[in-house]
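It would be a great kindness if you could assist me with a short task in structural biology. The matter concerns a single protein, recorded as an amino acid sequence and a row of backbone structure tokens. Could you please explain, in whatever detail you think fit, how the structure tokens follow from the sequence? Thank you for your consideration; the sequence and its tokens are set out here:
___
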Amino acid sequence: MHMNKLIEENFTKRNIGVVFFGCFSEAKEYLLEEIPNSATIGIGNSQTLKGMGITDAFAARGNIVYDKELAKSPEEKMQLNKQSLLSDYYVSSANAVSADGRIVNIDHSGNRVAALAYGPDRVFLVVGKNKITHTFEQAMTRAKNTSAPANARRAGHNPPCVELGYCVDCHSPERVCNIISVIEGQSVKGRLTLLIVDEDAGF
């Protein structure tokens, strides 16, 4: 409880909202209530969101959803990524969140971190407790040495970190950690909200 209070205080003073949930089903219901049926929604690729079935839930009630996982070709995937940058809402996860108020993400192509930084009017990031670290340094370590190798393996890439289990700042053509994003605050209060769930999920 003390940690939750600290996290809330540290993010609130950076104009980032925080809402805590006991389980992912509660977070899903919150998103369905907060985002109107008429809104367009971009989805940042995330194992956490896949586990929640969030894309299907929005699509089933009539939202226009831009999720590259729905693409049937590389060209369509690129188009969906671009459309998500102009969506009303954007929902994704994060690779690591530090209790001192930073959000760290590592991207292969950059579409996800681009949408988090600018474009959609409101952004929600859903993270399990396994992605919370005490310090920014620990968040960077987690993103590079836990998230990146796991995401590379999931996507079928084979940079050195997949075998080694940690980052060596490689120059492999299969490198997935091309763009590192650190969100330290928001100029628009209310644009970005963290949904922190008391369960483990994702990488």
The chain has a mean pLDDT of 94.
